[in-house]
Write a structure and sequence with these properties.
The complex is a heterodimer. By secondary structure, chain A is mainly β. Chain A contains no helices and eleven strands. Chain A is 0% helix and 51% strand. In chain A, strands 2, 4, 5, 6, 9, 10 and 11 form a seven-stranded mixed sheet that branches. A four-stranded antiparallel sheet of chain A has the order 1-3-8-7, with no helix packed on it. Chain B contains no helices and eleven strands. In chain B, strands 2, 4, 5, 6, 9, 10 and 11 form a seven-stranded mixed sheet that branches. Chain B has a four-stranded antiparallel sheet with strand order 1-3-8-7, with no helix packed on it. The N and C termini of chain B lie far apart (40 Å). The chains are: A mainly beta, B mainly beta.
Chain lengths: 106, 118
């Protein structure tokens, strides 16, 4: 089974700041990676798929990058509505999610 | 607008069964794989089951294989999850998701809570 190690577990940042969250796969997942945002009390929402493709309606301040086993989600110019938990998912070999990153405002 | 509405959750004793349903609308249901993903209280996400658009193939992680069965009725635009031999560790919110051909989940339902406890 492919394991996903996500970091950091929690993050505190200021409005307008740039934030980066990372995921490392236990083996090459060939860009089969998605990122999800989950606001408190809500269901997860797709942000990024295929490592770097923005889902319909997602603001352009979100971007994804990476290859092989290392991937990252970047949020430019942090907004208050970005306070949420973020999860990565590999779907190269079945499905495995990272443990999540809780993003708060400083 | 894509909508996925789950029903059937509740409190159930260990060892008993429960069946979840998910009614889909806003897209051509029989064109898409579908999945169930769960989230234990305060925890992360765990994939539970997937089914191809025709229903001809199903996939499960080891944690539920042999106990859970995913199925679909394309005429009724409905996805199901039959859960047998439930355990306390199955306690979670269960989400119905539209699956991009066995890949990422591009739409999620609002979730339904399942609590396994005596």
């Amino acid at each position: 089974d492919i394991q996903m190690t996500q970091s950091p577990a929690s993050l505190s940042a200021s409005l307008g700041e740039t934030v980066t969250i990372e995921c490392r796969a236990s083996e090459d997942i060939y860009n089969g990676l998605a990122w999800y945002q989950q606001k408190p009390g809500k269901s997860p929402q797709l942000l990024i798929y295929n490592a770097n493709s923005l889902h319909t309606g997602v603001p352009s301040r979100f971007s994804g990058s990476g290859s092989g086993t290392q991937y990252s989600l970047k949020i430019n110019s942090l907004q208050s509505e970005d306070v949420a938990s973020y999860f990565c998912q590999q779907y190269y070999d079945y499905n495995t999610f990272g443990a999540g990153t809780k993003l708060e405002l400083k | 607008e894509v909508q996925l509405v789950e029903t059937g959750g509740g409190l159930v004793q260990p060892g008993r069964s429960l069946k979840l349903s998910c009614v889909a609308s806003g897209f051509t249901f029989n064109n898409y794989w579908m999945s169930w993903t769960r989230q234990a209280p305060g925890k992360g996400l765990e994939w539970v089951a997937s089914i191809t658009n025709s229903g001809g193939s199903t996939y499960y992680p080891d944690s539920v294989k042999g106990r859970f069965t995913i199925s679909r009725d394309n005429a009724q635009n409905t996805l199901y999850l039959q859960m047998n031999s439930l355990r306390s560790e199955d306690t979670a919110t269960y989400y119905c998701t539209r699956d991009h051909y066995g890949g990422y989940e591009d739409y999620w339902g609002q979730g339904v809570m399942v609590t396994v406890s005596s």
